[in-house]
Amino acid sequence: MASLFFYAWGEPFFVWLMVLSIAVGWACGRAMERAASRGQEKRILTAGVVFHVGLLFVFKYLTFAASQLGLLLHEDFSAIHIALPIGISFFTFQLLSYLFDIYYGRAKAQQSVLAVGLYIALFPQLIAGPIVRYETIEQQIEHRVENIADFSSGMMRFIYGLGKKVLIANYMGAVADNIFDGGGSLSLATAWYGAFAYTLQIYFDFSGYSDMAIGLGRMFGFHFMENFNYPYISRSATEFWRRWHISLGTWFRDYVYIPMGGNRVTRRRWVYNLFVVWALTGIWHGANWTFLCWGLWYFVLLLVEKLTGFPEKLGPLAHVYALLAIVLGWTVFRAKDLGAAVSYIGAMLGMAPGGIADATFSYYLTNSFSVFAAAVLLSLPIVPYLQRKAAFQRVEPILATGIFVLSLVLTVSSSYNPFIYFNF
User: Fold this and answer.
1) pLDDT confidence of 418, banded at 50, 70, 90?
2) What is the SS3 assignment for 415?
3) Among 130, 133, 215, 339, which is disulfide-ready with 154 (CB 3.0 to 4.6 Å)?
4) Is 228 left (phi over 0), alpha (psi -120 to 50) or beta?
5) CA 147 vs CA 50, 151, 169, 219: distances in Å
6) Distance between CA 115 and CA 106 in Å, rounded?
7) Furthest C-alpha separation in the chain
8) Phi/psi at 83 (nearest 5 deg)?
9) Helix-strand-coil percent breakdown of the chain, rounded to 5?
10) What is the DSSP string of 264-277?
């Protein structure tokens, strides 16, 4: 009830949509368990999947689909404009996880609709993940244990996540927004600085939320899976996706890629499976051609890497290749449309109307470089290294308290800064 109240505070109307989704998911789970003896569970699974994916399509993609159809048919479908409920992609995927885990025999259907409701509506990860698999916390829903050690470590994790968001992501976001949306002529240096600023912003924004969710969950006795593992130290796009948004990547792997045959099929079928997974990964992020192209960008990269294995031949330069590929991908992801993406990447590749460098670049470099440098350092696994040192362990509580107080002061004094993944 508290989690539903939390969601209703921001979505007083769409909370009923989530309640309906929970009720249907619970009913389908019970029905699948009863129908297993008759071999009818697949029909019920199909009905549940169609219902939940259908809701996701209506609220997330119908407006975009209607606008594209209008352009094609030269008709005006602008009257079709449906608001996006916060977190619908996350709680829909968790409901699908619940149904799939029951169907594959990995978990048993919950008898209590409140238990299913707690799994879906649990407030720490409700609106921006990580996507918690039902089989992961099935036992924790009814048999979790709270203790002071978990509460303490959870509080520390929450504070670090809050600091990532407030002290780094918001600052880098202001720089990225000004450069991407500035409307002026970009120089090559400014374009690259803006792209790297957004690269840092989205990491600290999303991993910060994940840290807060994992920390809050641990305080209440829940142990969620890690969602990030320093993705910017990757040596390939393949490694990047083992480290970035881990809960989404494993969801598509286990519920889409492997059921389609994975890589244990003909090469043509494997390429098709890979294409479907990365097209869906892109579309999951939003109803825009930029997200689809971003997903297909990784399809191409992973396909080439798996067929050639060339990153392994690059040695230390593999890090440079991976980082450049990631930054170019984020540039498409951040752009408002494909035209803006092409124009911005053109500036990054030397076709910049503002030349190599300009006064704008000097301004941002002077005023934001200290935060930029700190963000780069903290995107490396420095903190885990320090946490293994006894001296750091003694001062860490004091450091965390300082981060919390500073984050609180900035949060109170700043304007509204929502998390990026609230949009998805």
Assistant:
1) confident
2) coil
3) 215
4) beta
5) 41, 6, 31, 8
6) 17
7) 73
8) -70, 150
9) 75, 0, 25
10) SS-HHHHHHHHHHH
Q: Which residue has the tokens 């969620």?
A: 224
CA distance 388 to 364: 35
Q: Residue 274 has which token pair?
A: 């890979």
Length, in residues, of the chain? 424
**Beta carbons of 117 and 143 less than 8 angstroms apart:** no
Least confident of 31-35, 126-130, 157-161: 126-130
Q: What are the extents of the domains in the chain? A: 2-143, 148-235+314-418
Structure pTM? 0.92
Using a 10 angstrom Cβ sphere, with 0-12 exposed, 13-18 middle and 19 or more buried, the burial of residue 33 is middle
- pLDDT higher than 90, residue 422: no
**What is the C-alpha radius of gyration for the chain, rounded to an integer number of angstroms?**
23
Measured CA to CA, the distance from residue 125 to residue 131 in angstroms comes to 8
CA distance 171 to 371: 8
DSSP secondary structure letters along 154-211: HHHHHHHHHHIIIIIIHHHHHHHHHHHS--SPPPHHHHHHHHHHHHHHHHHHHHHHHH
Residue 285 annotated to the active site = yes
Q: pLDDT tens digits, residue range 325-378? A: 999 999 999 999 999 999 999 999 988 777 888 888 889 888 899 999 999 999
Query: Which residue among the candidates 52, 223, 245, 285 is catalytic per the annotation?
Result: 285
pLDDT digits (tens, 9 = 90+) for 214-259: 999 999 999 998 999 999 999 999 999 999 999 999 999 999 999 9
